Every structure is written in structure tokens, then in C-alpha cells.
Amino acid sequence: MPFRIIGDTNIDFIGKRTPAYILSALLVLLGIFAAVMIASGNANLGIQFTGGTVVEGYFDQPVDIGDLRAALERGGFEDAEIVHVAGRPQPYTFFIRVKVAEGETQKAQSVVNLIKQYFPDNNFNLDTVHEVGAAVGKDLKKDTLIAVALSLLGILIYIAIRFDFRFGVCATIATFHDVLAVLGIFYLMGVEINILLISAILTLAGYSLTDKVTVYDRIRENLKKFHRKADFVPSVNLSINEVLSRTIMTGTTVLACLIILAIVGGPVLRDFALALLVGILIGTYSSIFVASTMYVDWETRSPKRFRAS
Questions:
Q1: What region does 76 belong to: left with phi over 0, alpha with psi -120 to 50, or beta?
Q2: Share of the chain above pLDDT 70, in %
Q3: How far apart are CA 13 and CA 186, in angstroms?
Q4: How far is CA 267 from the centre of its chain?
Q5: Which of 131, 248, 292, 298 is found 20 to 30 A from 123 (Cα to Cα)?
Q6: Which residues contact 191 (CB under 8 A, 6 or more apart)?
Q7: Any alpha helices (H) in the chain, and if so which ranges?
Q8: Contact 280, 255 (CB under 8 A)
Q9: Crossing angle of the two packed helices 17-39 and 292-301, in degrees rounded to 10
Q10: Strand 81-85 vs strand 93-99: parallel, antiparallel, or unpaired?
């Protein structure tokens, strides 16, 4: 007998779609607002999108991060972001990120010179430097938006071929809902929007799609099986309940891995793991309360695949 995390359920998911629609509308509006702010440059964008310089290095002796920030501000780097990197062989390692305006280049040496000027008795050892021009950042932002749009179009085509057009439209809207919801939540949290976060959002779109395909598969099977025995809505409810245990089991195992990654993965992977973690929760919710319920409403208003006997 296969292992089940929960027993048989008989939950009326479709009957709860009104409050779910309200919640989803709020999440989508928040996501649209975040997307507008990101497109206009009024968000916490990473240097891949804005252009900038990241300097990584370490001091020989302890240094107060407040003193380091004050030194950079006095030197004209008021927007510098400084992160103390724990877990390195050198305990006084820092990431220092400064943005550059269009036409500016090579700020790394200015940052290093400034640090040496303000901390002459505490040697600063330069490890790595990453430079991204502002023009490159603009191109990358445009390419990223195109990549996201093409990904969603691919989802629509895939589901439309595998199931039918209505399933494809509902799955695409639900996946778009997931992407916007995560984007909006992370915008509210002030998390930096960078390439790693975009990668996480596209990854969760794939996971979310897989979850929706699972639910749709069962709905399609039950629509054939109960075509003459049950009403449409009970068939969809039955389908969701039948895959609920698998959905919870899959989500729980993935979430366990992501929680560990968020805790021990360090500052670079933390936002990536958190984006996936939030995205999986929202993707699971939307498979049940967005993708399935939209299909029910569409099919109820204009029956095509199923006609109650």
C-alpha cells in the first residue's frame, strides 16, 4: 500500500473559491504594482539590472561595519551596500556593492583606495571584483522580461496541446498569478531583485506548472469516468481531493530541502531559497483555488468538455 500523509478527504474546494478569488486579486494587483516599479527602476534592483561594482575582500583586523559604511559615505558612495560575510576562513570578510551611473566604469579601485585611506593601519585584501555597466544592465532587464513572457507563452502552448485550450489558458493565468504574487511579496519585503531571484521565479513557474498538470490530469480522468454519473463541480472537487495527499507530500519534501538551504546556504542562496519556498506555497494554493476554479467557472458558463446528465 502506498504511503499517504493524509487519509481520504472530501473538502469542498470549489465552494470556497470566492474568498480565494479576492485573495488572488490582491496578490495579482500587488504583483502588477511591483512589476511597474521594477520596470521604471523604482525598486531594489541588483547590479545586473542597474549596473554597478561588487568588491569582496577582507581586513586583517576587526572593523566595525558602521565605521566602514561611514567611510564610504564620506567618500561619495552614499548608496553603498555592505554585507559582512560569515563562515569564511578570514573572519572580517565583506561584500561591498556600489551602483554606477551610465557612462561610469571601474569604481572598484576607487572603493579600495578609499578603504585604505580611512583604514591605513588595517590592511584590506582584495579577493574579487565584479563590474557591470549600466547599459548592460538595461539590456539584461529587457532580455529578462522577454524570457519571462516567452516562458509563459510556452506554458500556454504546452498545456493547450496536452489537454485543451481552456486548460492551457487557466494554467497560464494561474502560473502568471504565482509569478506576480512572489514578485509582489518580495518587493514589499525590500528584497533585491536580481538574476538569482528571477531564476527562482522561473523555476517555481515550472514547479507550479507540474502541480497544475497533476490536478488537470485527474480532472480529465474523472470527467470521463463520471460523465454520466455526477455533476461537474463534484467531479472536480473529487479530483482535487484525490491528489491532495500527493500534493502535500511533494510540497513538504521540497519545502524541507528549501528550508535547510535558506538556513545554511548563506546570503547568496538565501533569497533564492526563500523565493522558491514562498512560490511553492503559492503554486500549490493556485493549483487548487485558481487554476481549477477558473476552469470550473469557464466550463459552467459555457459547457464544452462536460455536460451533466
A1: left
A2: 87
A3: 28
A4: 16
A5: 131
A6: 44, 197, 271, 274
A7: 17-39, 47-50, 65-74, 108-118, 134-162, 165-189, 195-225, 232-264, 266-286, 292-301
A8: yes
A9: 110
A10: antiparallel
Neighbour-count burial for 64-92, b at 16+ CB within 10 Å, e otherwise:
eeeebbebbeebebeebbbeebeeeeeeb
Which pLDDT score is estimated for 24? Answer: 94
Grid coordinates belonging to 247: 500534493
Q: Which of these, 262, 286, 282, 285, lies nearest to 273 by C-alpha position?
A: 262
Distance (Å, whole) CA 188 – CA 232: 39
Q: Which residue has the cell 512572489?
A: 182
- What are the pLDDT digits (tens) for 87-113? 777 888 888 888 765 555 567 788 888
pLDDT single digits (tens) 210-225: 888 888 888 888 877 7
CA distance 279 to 223: 29
Q: What are residue 142's phi and psi, to 5 degrees? A: -65, -45
The residue whose grid cell reads 551611473 is 101
Give 34-39 contacts, CB < 8 A, sequence gap 24+: 34/180, 34/183, 34/184, 34/186, 34/187, 34/188, 35/180, 35/183, 37/187, 38/183, 38/187, 38/193, 39/141, 39/145
Identity of residue 175:
T
pLDDT of residue 309: 46
Rounded Cα distance, 210 and 2, in Å = 21
Which helix or strand (DSSP H or E) is residue 132 part of?
A: strand 124-132
